[in-house]
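Priority: low. Protein: Histone-binding protein RBBP4-like N-terminal domain-containing protein. Input follows.
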Amino acid sequence: MTSIYTNTLEASDGHPERFEELRIWRLNSCFLYDLLMLKRNTLGLYSCQWFPETDVSSLSGFFSQKILLGRAGDGNSPFMVIQVDIPDSKEQGYSDDLREELKSGEEPNLTKLRVCFVGSLGLDIHRVRYSPQQNYIVAGRTSKANVVLFDISEVPISGKPQAKPLDILDGPPEKNNCFSLAWDPVRKGVLGASGPDSGIYQWDVNGGNIKALSCIRDPQQETINDIHYHPTESIIGAAGEQKRFTLFDWTSHSVIDSKVAHKKGINCIEFHPQNGNLFLTGSDDTTIALWDRRKTHRELYRFTDHQVSVTEVHWNPVSPSVFASAADNKVFLWDMTRIGAPLDPKDLDACSPELLFIHGGHIKGVEGLDWNPQLPRVVASVSLDEFIEIWSPGLHVLDDL
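Result:
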């Protein structure tokens, strides 16, 4: 097998110390996880999203589930859907072969992840998301920041057939590094994306008749890095490069609230799936802020254990207090119920009590992560290091999910 440490200095982007961290992590991972699955792709990965449906696996003791992936570096296959065989019990989630491969430094050779099909476009897709009401309709943001639609309902499962784009939507001016994209959970078939001109563009794509909706703007924002729709109300949250978040009402196209919330640009924003008054923002200032939209004069709490820019925040779909965040090559899991909990005197110089777990399996920056909607303790994370990693911390970490 090929060693995972091949060409390490090149892959580390000038951070050779990460390989010692990775070596230690792999040696100790069998004590940290109930499930760990690693798969190397031929290209770097930008985004991931679990599909909600599960199916019977051909493997005894497993069930199947699909994941939508955005890919880097090859415009001929900018996204793919993979099918994962997930063990029914934790005993099958960590095979003896995988343990030995991790200890030896060899690249894990897992057959439980396989490609169903890839999309064909001619451009990289940095973020790809399916519609919550029609998950065969897939939208992506390209390397040129275009918004592209695909219908994957007619694509067969065998081999590596290709899905052709339905349409390239007119809207945001083209500019690199502008990849926000979100579907509205309230309005069927409504898609939103921001542009470098501070606008949030929306489309109604129902029935194949694509209709551009009114663009919404905050004059105090210049570049919007991320958007997220409220789970039940007519609100869009936007995270901006000008250190500011903005809450819009999409019915009146008005600004509900706009506030400087961090010391540097804000990269991500997400509303709580059950309590729509709460939302998170993650910033280049290395912090995550928890907000109540009814009183935004001050954050409810600020999470400060990250050492570099926070690029992703995602609430757990089941536990109201747990969320995940990504910064550089790490994924952090947090529990708000532990805020203010006493620390053992021996741990006073350690992490905050609300920090549950750190996943250290990537060598390059984590570009995307997603909680499994059917297994709320399972996370998928992807990186430009070409790995997709599917993992679940041990019950001693997330014993209440």
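The chain has one domain: 8-393. The two ends are 36 Å apart (CA to CA).
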